[in-house]
Amino acid sequence: MLGKKEKQVPLDPQNIPRHIAIVMDGNGRWAQKRGLPRKAGHSAGSETFHKAATILAELGVEHLTVYAFSTENWKRPPDEVQEIMNLLERYLKKSVRELTENNIQLDFWGDLTPFSPKLRQLIAQTDEISKQCTGMHVHICLNYGGRDEILRGARALAQDCLAGKLLPEQIDEKALEARMDCRGAPAPDLLIRPGGELRISNFLLWECAYSEFYFTDTLWPDFDETELRRAVAAYQGRQRRFGGLK
Ligand code: IPE
Ligand code: IPE
Ligand code: MG
């Protein structure tokens, strides 16, 4: 990582994305390239996440959403799933305090019900500690799927209709969003996918309607400050129209 800002990719401080979303992909290949087990890649990836959150908070980003475990990642070999769960526990025990000391607020998007009671307790504790913070919001997506998020929101709408709290004709985008994980957060301005794959893999399907996409072959554990600034610089070169005209 370059220490000196003057050597870094220049950025317009007036046009920093409010919300950046990242698919943290490429951990396994990063490890395999080094002859290491895949879990070493996940561990390196968690360190990269920690650094990226700190750098983006300093840049003035208001929301960072990271894809850490998808609703489809349960299909991996049980050993790998277990290693990811262990890593999550270790991360939440060890590193969360550091983020909250930097005033970063953490919360979790996704269906947390299948996780172990221990992990859920750590998640609840993290939520509690984070309440004191007022800085950048970091949303960690765990057992998250864009389709599942929309489904859970739709189910909550149906329940409120049944309970007489809402009429079907009152359902609009705002009503659905109020029942989704993303409630309260602006839509992502920039969605970054390292790791070389050119797909969305069920991430933020509702939220990314007008996000700018940035794909790169760099593997997530190698995604340092220079890479982050490159992605933001690319965003700053885009013209956003939201369906209108310039
Ligand atoms: C992303 O890295 C982390 C998770 C999906 C949990 P991968 O594990 O998908 O790494 P690659 O894509 O196999 O290199
Ligand atoms: C997306 O990466 C999920 C996360 C990074 C958590 P995957 O590695 O699971 O996606 P695919 O299988 O390449 O689409
Ligand atoms: Mg992958």
Q: Short description, anyone?
A:
By secondary structure, the chain is of the alpha/beta class. The protein has helices at about 25-35, 40-60, 80-95, 95-100, 115-130, 145-160, 175, 225-235; strands at about 20-25, 65, 105-110, 135-140, 190-195, 210-215. The chain is built from 8 helices and 6 strands; from the N terminus they run E-H-H-E-H-H-E-H-E-H-H-E-E-H.
Question: Can you give a write-up of this model?
Answer:
The protein is of the alpha/beta class. Helices cover 41% and strands 11% of the residues. The protein has 8 helices and 6 strands, in the order E-H-H-E-H-H-E-H-E-H-H-E-E-H. It has helices at 27-33, 38-59, 78-94, 96-101, 117-130, 146-162, 173-177, 225-236, and strands spanning 19-23, 63-67, 105-109, 137-141, 190-193, 212-215. Strands 3-4-2-1-5-6 form a 6-stranded parallel beta sheet. Helix 5 links the parallel strand 3 (105-109) and strand 4. Helix 1 (27-33) crosses helix 2 (38-59), helix 2 packs parallel to helix 3 and helix 3 (78-94) runs parallel beside helix 5. The longest helix is centred in the N-terminal third of the chain and has 22 residues, at 38-59. The chain starts with 18 loop residues before the first strand and ends in a 10-residue tail after the last helix. The model has no long low-confidence stretch (mean pLDDT 96). It binds 3-methylbut-3-enyl trihydrogen diphosphate (IPE) (2 copies) and magnesium ion. One 3-methylbut-3-enyl trihydrogen diphosphate binds at residues 23-25, 67-70, 73, 197, 199, 201.
List keywords for this structure.
246 residues; 8 helices; 6 strands; globular; binds 3-methylbut-3-enyl trihydrogen diphosphate; binds magnesium ion
